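Kindly draft a polypeptide, keeping tokens residue-aligned:

***
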Amino acid sequence: MTDYDYLRNLLKTRSGLMLGADKHYLVESRLLPVVRKAGLNDLAGLVLKLKSTNAESLIVEVVEAMTTNETFFFRDRIPFDHFRETIMPALIAARARERERRIRIWCAAASTGQEPYTLAICLKEMGRMLAGWHVEIVATDISMEALEKAKSGIYSQFEVQRGLPIMMLVKYFTQVGELWQLTPELRGMVQFKPFNLLSDLARLGTFDVVFCRNVLIYFDQQTKTDVLDRMARVIAPDGFLALGAAETVVGLTESFKPFTDKRGIYVPNPKGGKTSGNVINLATTRAVMAASGR
């Protein structure tokens, strides 16, 4: 087995990340800083050390270096429009008569926090609609370094300029020198936790909404199916799953089905039965209609 194949297998086993045979350049560019930090000469030396005993901390560094992905505020925008205009109104209508008005949201692979904070901003913008409701956002990532940055809520001028409307920047951020920090209220709306999607998802509890965007594209087909099937077991029967624009459940699992004409949004498929792609359960349909006043 070559050093590159060893690294590919290690990353797939520990994080689900699937690298093609032609990604040598990516591995080198992301792992050379790890090589230098460890006082080694090259990737061959890194692999040799990874194979030794007591290499767990180095393995974690390698996985973090390879799984840190790009993110920005209101990325692709459409899923956040669906969240604000369709998902939340449907859930509010469906749960309005419950004694405890509670909604739980999971943002998986949250990276440096822009996505869960975008969801928090969307919730704040909903105003009175959420009066009396407790909405919890749990954001997870495999990278401790990314989570530390996320918890701080501090971003550069470049980071806040990518997708964030200027009015929301002024409303929800405070300038600190050349940087921008989210208000304490917004930071307090998100709980950040280290978590690996290959782990037991039941540890996180049950959720009404799951955002797992631009993550599955890095997995092989079997891992995608496994993650989706396990996610179906932690999403409420009338809950929602949001995937990235290049991701789908079609051909991978029958645990979910597309939500009407809302691209990238899926709902649990009762009993995993085969259904038409645009069919949605009656209870959710009625909830959406009620929320929209129809």
